[in-house]
Amino acid sequence: MLEALKVIILGIVEGITEWLPISSTGHLILVEEFVKLKMSDDFMSMFNVVIQLGAILAVVVIYFHKLNPFSRIKTDKQKKLTLQLWVKVIVAAVPAAIIGLLFDDFLDEHLMNYVVVAIMLILYGVIFIVVEKRNEHVKPAVRRLSDLTVPMALLIGGFQVLALIPGTSRSGATIIGGLLIGASRAVAAEFTFFLAIPVMFGASLLKIIKFGFHFTGMEGFLLLLGCAVSFGVSIFAIRFLMQYIKGHDFKVFGYYRIVLGIIVLLYFGMSALFA
């Protein structure tokens, strides 16, 4: 029962932080200091990635009509635009897929630590503030997803590669990429959500294959519970973000990241000092 409560907490954290550009990793390493599951390190490494499947499902549910190229109520032109959107998403997913497959173990071994996470939290917090200040008097050139070209999508995919460094935030990196190429906040955020589908599904599948399909009954239950909670919370987080950016910019997330990065550095630094 206690382990299930811990998984619910982790699922809530994942569901919120996966979509807001504030780094799910940065939050999870803090939360896991106080909410430790009594599971193997291999299981936890897989668990923290696979509960993202619930978050992916939230995107599919919310945007099912927009993402479905076979909808009977869409015109032929709308179906064509939907297929073109999927082409852009797949093209944008390629860079992170290649680099992730090649360097997944290296990144986990050498960069998954609180110093790297804290630095990335602070660095991208500053970048968010700088980019948004630059855009204060600039009208976005890309106001619709259909205006997004394949080269633009590939460039956003290049920014997603940066998110392989823990603490960066996948949504944060791709939103910054979208803003820099002239996309509106809504287009940058929505494309980030859609790009998550192949990327996060692939990452989850890779972790499951590495762990193996030999789950115990308890492990399977906790995994499904985490996915379910992540799904429910993600529905609210995605809708909140899309509503929020209608009248606000991303600077508040930049300030939040800087504060969180300092907290991570201070907490783990003091813990190491007095260990």
UniProtKB/TrEMBL annotation:
Q: Quote the InterPro entries the UniProt record gives.
A: UppP
Please write the reaction equations for the catalytic activity of this protein: di-trans,octa-cis-undecaprenyl diphosphate + H2O = di-trans,octa-cis-undecaprenyl phosphate + phosphate + H(+)
Compartment(s): Cell membrane
Q: Which residues cross the membrane?
A: 43-64, 85-102, 114-131, 152-181, 187-209, 221-242, 254-274
Question: Could you name the Gene Ontology cellular component terms for this entry?
Answer: plasma membrane
GO MF, one annotated term: undecaprenyl-diphosphatase activity
Give the UniProt keywords, A-Z: Antibiotic resistance, Cell membrane, Cell shape, Cell wall biogenesis/degradation, Hydrolase, Membrane, Peptidoglycan synthesis, Transmembrane, Transmembrane helix
Q: How is the protein disposed in the membrane?
A: Multi-pass membrane protein
Q: What is an example of a Pfam family matching this protein?
A: BacA
Question: Which domain of life, per UniProt?
Answer: Bacteria
Q: What family is this protein classified in? A: Belongs to the UppP family.
Give the miscellaneous note. Answer: Bacitracin is thought to be involved in the inhibition of peptidoglycan synthesis by sequestering undecaprenyl diphosphate, thereby reducing the pool of lipid carrier available.
General function of this protein: Catalyzes the dephosphorylation of undecaprenyl diphosphate (UPP). Confers resistance to bacitracin.
Protein's recorded name: Undecaprenyl-diphosphatase
Q: Which organism is it from?
A: Muricomes intestini
Q: Which gene encodes it?
A: uppP
